[in-house]
User: What shape does this take?
Amino acid sequence: MKHRTIQLFGVALLFTALAAAQDIASFEKKITVKKLDNGLTVLICERPEAPVFSFYTHVDAGSVQDPMGQTGLAHMFEHMAFKGTEAIGTTNYPAEKAALEKVETAYAAYLQERDQPAKRDEARLQELKSAWQAAIKDANQYVKSNEFTEIVERNGGQDINASTTEDETNYFYALPANRLELWAYLESERFLHPVMRQFYDERNVVIEERRMRVDSNPIGRLLEQFTTAAFQAHSYHRPGIGWISDLNSFSATDARKFFDTYYIPSNMVVTVVGDVKAAQAMPILEKYFGRIPSHPKPDERTTTEPPQNAERRVVLHDMAQPIYLEGYHRPDYRGQDDAVYDAIADLMSNGRTSRLYRALVRDKKIASDSAGFSGLPGNKYPHLFAFYAVPLPGHKPDEMADAIHAEIERIKKEDISDDELKMIKTRAKANLLRGLGDNDGLSLQLGLFQARFDDWRELFRQVDKIEKVSKADIRRVANQTFVETNRTVGIIETIAPPAGGEQNGGAQ
Amino acid sequence: MKRLPSILIIMVALAVPHLLAQTSWQQIPIPPLPAFHPQEPKRIELPNGMVIFLQEDHELPLIDGVARIRGGSRREPADKVGLVDIYGEVWRTGGTKTQTGDQLDDYLEIRAARVETGGGGDSTSLGWSCLKADFDDVFKVVMDLLQNPAFRDDKLDLAQHEAFDGISRRNDDIGGIAARESVKLAYGAQNPYARVPEYATVSAITRQDLENWYQTYVHPNNIIVGVAGDFDSVAMEAKLRAAFGAWPKGPAWKKDDIPLQPAKPGYYLIPKTDVNQSAIRMIAPGTRRDDPDYFAIEVFNEAFGGGFSSRLFRDLRTGKGLAYSVGGGVGTAFDHPGVLRLSIGTKSQSTVEAIQGLYQEVDDLTTKPITDDEIKRAKDSILNSFVFNFDSPDKVLRERMAYEFYGYPADFLERYRAGIEKVQPADVKRVAARFMHTDKLAVLVVGNTGEFDKPLSSLGPVTTVDISIPPPPGEPVK
Assistant: This one.
């Protein structure tokens, strides 16, 4: 039952603030962590507020791990993890398995002809395409469409979803508390016996997702060009959604190989928060998740982005209204100055007292919004601290750049005020704990920190790190990071639509 | 709670006998869900007509609240559309008689507290969130804004410029265009439920308009207050009675009665050259939640277009790979008809194919009616997830406040559960027959016409919708 009126209250009521009682000691009593024999980590947090639970499966593999020529594959596998298993989603798995193998053989033959560098035989290509599509049709006869998600939905599953970022892949939903064992079965089974059924239809779904998020969206178009320009060596330069030629080429076999390589127990943290008792739940989770066979860790080497020594600019001449964006390379989330970057982001961006709001929106009246933030496009590896501004009508991106740079110069040259430092520290506590008042937020935060630091307590220690940030730290890090040669700029400059271009075709 | 039907277990068992040796999900026990009686908020009605709900929740040392005030953008004058949006911002940013908005910002931020105002279709709101220890400090600000707002000119100017920015950007994204224009098709382009601000209407708004709005609507008998968090109800009630008790009652509230002017069925086209995907919306008026068919509509929506196992998702996304985003159903609202909306986003080259795919789904409702198993699945899904409607004290509070606001019975949620349980296949069939007809739908397409698989006109006469933005007063048309 979704009531649109709820949204009206959402902002006011869902906002939660600083909570001194919610510290490590209080959570020690609620949390149980166990590393299973196969290397998979289980975290259970008891929160018996209502007879429900949320879970969060964190897999330490994201788009950065996409193989060369197969961008978008991590995200593609995430879609496939909803397609069922050897027992769910099929009327006859042995027959389906054989049919799916034929699909792969037919697809490989089609690809080989399609990608002939010279003298492609078009007639033969059509034959091979037809054979491939016939094989798909044959395999589809065994499919019980969407049975996996249907079971979850029938059992009351709430907010069923997943996300693939550059850094990791996450799966999550919530269920009534009496479905814990059913969930443990379903969640372990999808990573024990996944089946790449309906792969090529789902690939078309993912291509539509790319069209929606990137090709047909001006911000998406800008971000893709901006990020590919800012990174040249590290895999962050490749779009997580995938380049279109890769999306039109990778196969179910490739997706399965990706799964076999990266979905290994030592890369996975499963977090459950809600009305569960660890004493009863842990043996259940151990029974189901302990079945996933362990493998050695894959080769995790990535190219380190070398220092940037010249400004880069990307200017999109687009029909959309102007946007200004710039980014500076900074170290990964483990860097010793991580908390200083958090403090700078808060100072520049948080609320109506923030430096950028007051300068660009309130005083200069040139932008409707402006902020600075870390984490573009991820933060597990060295990434960007970015600033953006949305110009008001009649104002140009260059004015945004000047105004942002003036604010950057201020934090480089002058200490921030005592009140500002106090606000940053008070808000850090509030922001960190904001997600702790509900099962979804808690499972995400605990799972992420357990995975990232091998210790959920690090979530709470973030506050201590911000507490130690000094005015001098902010000046030092600003001076070190926000320099011209370390900068990439992305701009949308508005152009008029082509003459008559919006009128052709269709309507008579 | 409910187990899956045994017939399904038998079917699966017959189909895959080799798997019986493994754990089979059907054999996993589902114990009964423990009895759960969510705590109801305390309802207090003051002699001046203000209604207050108090919901104690001691998990975190926080106190959050909201005052919801009757009267929203549906009542703003047609030549000042955008007034309530602007009012909703300047109420807070414009400060009070004694404190500027900027001073309030500093005062609140140092406490990591928040006080925000907003405007919507049927109400405006003033909400806050603070640490328990700061409640008195923060509530002082809330009361000051509620009783002595100043609507300063500089913040009005700022809000107007932000509104201009929103207007200038409203045609940048096809999803946003489709959302806005489909509501216009459902209710009428100039209807209070659908109209949007323009440069001229926003420019026309004055400080006096904001002041007048405040004087007209902010009376205790128009306000419902909800407070949730770590407090003692007895002490909080005394505090709120002291704060609000002496406020004199205003004129009695009269309900809105807004006639609809839905667009004629047919094809509506908005050409956009910089995209490779079409946003398609099929639109007709929906209904209200006090419609006797409401519960059957909920089951129908779940089976037809809501979620992963619905027909639209299964056939058009999973089966045909035509879309990432597809779904829809008969929309409902508390106090006016919602919008019946089927939506799909598909590549330009399959635009007409996708429209025909949606039509096929609508036609199939007659030739292949929603089956008993689909209905069972939909009901299981709604009933088994029912607990998520009240799994936190603030959700319970929000539900109760909504029922109070719209004059629905306080136990509407319980009636909802009972209503869903009673839905029979004949009810779902009746709902499908009542609402779902291809010849009654207004079909909106926003897309790159030159790339369509066939011209939209091959399906019928097409009306091109002009979405060009009227320039600000005094500026030439571009």
Residues 339 and 466 of chain A are 5 Å apart (CA to CA).
